[in-house]
């Protein structure tokens, strides 16, 4: 079908469409990459024609211009890569439409163009037209804060449980030996030490009254 | 036998005799903590020894020092340096049944400084180590999303391209340096506290507190998970890694021996240092853990088993890490090569598929010859597999940059990311248990806190204090501070402490007495191998490594790597000298532990002199305390 192609191309005024011409854009198709092994040699021609329709459609959507037909889209310099240059002319085919308009039209409809032919920004490249990258979808609360909150709550609960069980254990330990401790303390307090030698406590061992020692009460003989 | 022992009067009064040991063990059963079973003890020791260094330091050393040939110095030094020191610490802890401060002050009061030095080092290492765990937690929290946040660059304001800093470096670099650390361009630019890092730091210290709240009573339970999970994850990664394309490239690169490296003294030095640090010796934690053992526990078998496990883990982790690195390098190489092919195709508008990997070279040359002017305009990248394999594969760079990038290229990336960071978390946490033990027990022995205070309060105060000090690592310059501490707090002081430990046990405690103790504890005397290594070989190796380190580092200007987008060769890190005040920090960080040994010895000697004078006066002026009727009368 290549002869049809050449007929179309030569029938149109080729001067307006040149590589690096004013208002001309280069398009690069990576069909092999997009379709993988399903791409066969006949595909490039088909894609090329389809793309002409697509360009027309996208330019039609451009608000200021009306009445632009497929024949107004000029293609040139088709290579085996598959890449080509195109310009869009006005209905009189005298001059090309400004690059800004084409650029904004394509930019706005890039997604539709891509999705219509299962291509993406890498496999259908419009050189010099920067693609708008999709902004990432940020959830309202970052996921990491949720996970952090979960882990942190678990840890705080664990700390509280351990501390409380420790306090309970200590209270139980304190209650049991406390009765035993008291009696031991009493006897310890009463052991007096003189020069490192403990004296026998006078009030726990048997003691005798020394009769010669008079108590205060008995000093004065009763009348 | 060498009878070279320093005079040590009063040693028998300070330590329990062998006959008393079994009695003491029964008495202490209620008051002193002890292990529920042998498995807990082994898992805790293995967990303490096996840490992040096994995953991100050893593989790098292995690969950069001759691959398979590095095993030779590593294994030799493991046997003559690592195992004897480990056995020594286990045995002395089990014999004297005290933490590090208690053990050294029992051997001789003037040697208390060794225990204090261990405490300082454990404290400083614990500070920054837990910050690394906080970073691991940050990555862990962010792993529960697909695609992973570090797989693509964020978009700039126009939405026309990526943020410039990210486009010039890579999405993983940008995520680490900008979105995690928000790093400044020098250590002097402190910036402010990064709130997200602070949250993760809080979480890390709380988790540590939960696990160490009651000492080994709680850590003993935690280690069932933290010490075993890393091995499970490593095995999963090994299986996954070996099925990836290019994994064998990495393993071959790692283990290809280069025998000429053995002649390089730096190889032996690095091997010795790695063995030493990977065993977590001289931190005091191992002595403490051993002191909770029963008296007749076979510490000789324990030390051999722990050493073997540690060495095996290093090699196992190296295999896993390099299989993943091989995969990543192959991916990068393929991408680079395909990019070059595309450049050639686009440059000359050739049909797709006409240029493949096989004919790329000849086509490239043909076009260069036929259309030299057009060809000169094309820019081709250099794709070198070896350079991809040896990129940034050490330390935090390995974990947070190289590995995370490799994970983004694997299918079901969030799963691998979660597993990887859980593994790092467990490795780091189990090492932190040993650090905490090395700080809490000495503080208890030094009676800094009242005895009445429960252990929960003590551990809580220490965790809180360390948490507040660690705020410095959440600043913009935090990572520079961490590197500073890592290089100087955890290196030279440990060597000196280990040398002093060996010297103290062999020459102050007396190796003959030590041999008898071990014979009592495990039933047979240590054989000639242990004698030679304890008395001569290991201390000599410590000294040699220390001298080498000292000589190499003392004259070097201290430099560090800085992430500066304004640097011409960005994304390469710029090597910048430290500001002058950083030298002061280094002196404090490395000097305080080292100097505490001689300073305490001198302080003790002076106090002894003064006490001797006082006790002579005391004989004369003791008051006679009379008492009547049981009442004391002064």
TrEMBL record, chain A:
<feature type="region of interest" description="Disordered">
    <location>
        <begin position="173"/>
        <end position="195"/>
    </location>
</feature>
<keyword id="KW-0812">Transmembrane</keyword>
<feature type="domain" description="Collectrin-like">
    <location>
        <begin position="21"/>
        <end position="223"/>
    </location>
</feature>
<dbReference type="GO" id="GO:0070062">
    <property type="term" value="C:extracellular exosome"/>
</dbReference>
<feature type="transmembrane region" description="Helical">
    <location>
        <begin position="141"/>
        <end position="164"/>
    </location>
</feature>
<protein>
    <recommendedName>
        <fullName>Collectrin-like domain-containing protein</fullName>
    </recommendedName>
</protein>
<dbReference type="InterPro" id="IPR031588">
    <property type="entry name" value="Collectrin_dom"/>
</dbReference>
<keyword id="KW-0597">Phosphoprotein</keyword>
<dbReference type="InterPro" id="IPR042944">
    <property type="entry name" value="Collectrin"/>
</dbReference>
<dbReference type="GO" id="GO:0051957">
    <property type="term" value="P:positive regulation of amino acid transport"/>
</dbReference>
<keyword id="KW-1133">Transmembrane helix</keyword>
<dbReference type="GO" id="GO:0005886">
    <property type="term" value="C:plasma membrane"/>
</dbReference>
<dbReference type="Pfam" id="PF16959">
    <property type="entry name" value="Collectrin"/>
</dbReference>
<keyword id="KW-0472">Membrane</keyword>
<keyword id="KW-0325">Glycoprotein</keyword>
<keyword id="KW-1003">Cell membrane</keyword>
<keyword id="KW-0732">Signal</keyword>
UniProtKB/TrEMBL annotation, chain B:
<dbReference type="Pfam" id="PF00209">
    <property type="entry name" value="SNF"/>
</dbReference>
<protein>
    <recommendedName>
        <fullName>Transporter</fullName>
    </recommendedName>
</protein>
<feature type="transmembrane region" description="Helical">
    <location>
        <begin position="532"/>
        <end position="552"/>
    </location>
</feature>
<feature type="binding site">
    <location>
        <position position="50"/>
    </location>
    <ligand>
        <name>Na(+)</name>
    </ligand>
</feature>
<keyword id="KW-0472">Membrane</keyword>
<keyword id="KW-0769">Symport</keyword>
<feature type="transmembrane region" description="Helical">
    <location>
        <begin position="457"/>
        <end position="476"/>
    </location>
</feature>
<dbReference type="InterPro" id="IPR000175">
    <property type="entry name" value="Na/ntran_symport"/>
</dbReference>
<dbReference type="InterPro" id="IPR002438">
    <property type="entry name" value="Neutral_aa_SLC6"/>
</dbReference>
<feature type="binding site">
    <location>
        <position position="54"/>
    </location>
    <ligand>
        <name>Na(+)</name>
    </ligand>
</feature>
<feature type="binding site">
    <location>
        <position position="427"/>
    </location>
    <ligand>
        <name>Na(+)</name>
    </ligand>
</feature>
<feature type="binding site">
    <location>
        <position position="278"/>
    </location>
    <ligand>
        <name>Na(+)</name>
    </ligand>
</feature>
<feature type="transmembrane region" description="Helical">
    <location>
        <begin position="415"/>
        <end position="436"/>
    </location>
</feature>
<comment type="similarity">
    <text>Belongs to the sodium:neurotransmitter symporter (SNF) (TC 2.A.22) family.</text>
</comment>
<keyword id="KW-0813">Transport</keyword>
<keyword id="KW-0325">Glycoprotein</keyword>
<dbReference type="GO" id="GO:0046872">
    <property type="term" value="F:metal ion binding"/>
</dbReference>
<feature type="transmembrane region" description="Helical">
    <location>
        <begin position="488"/>
        <end position="511"/>
    </location>
</feature>
<feature type="binding site">
    <location>
        <position position="310"/>
    </location>
    <ligand>
        <name>Na(+)</name>
    </ligand>
</feature>
<keyword id="KW-0479">Metal-binding</keyword>
<feature type="transmembrane region" description="Helical">
    <location>
        <begin position="275"/>
        <end position="292"/>
    </location>
</feature>
<feature type="binding site">
    <location>
        <position position="431"/>
    </location>
    <ligand>
        <name>Na(+)</name>
    </ligand>
</feature>
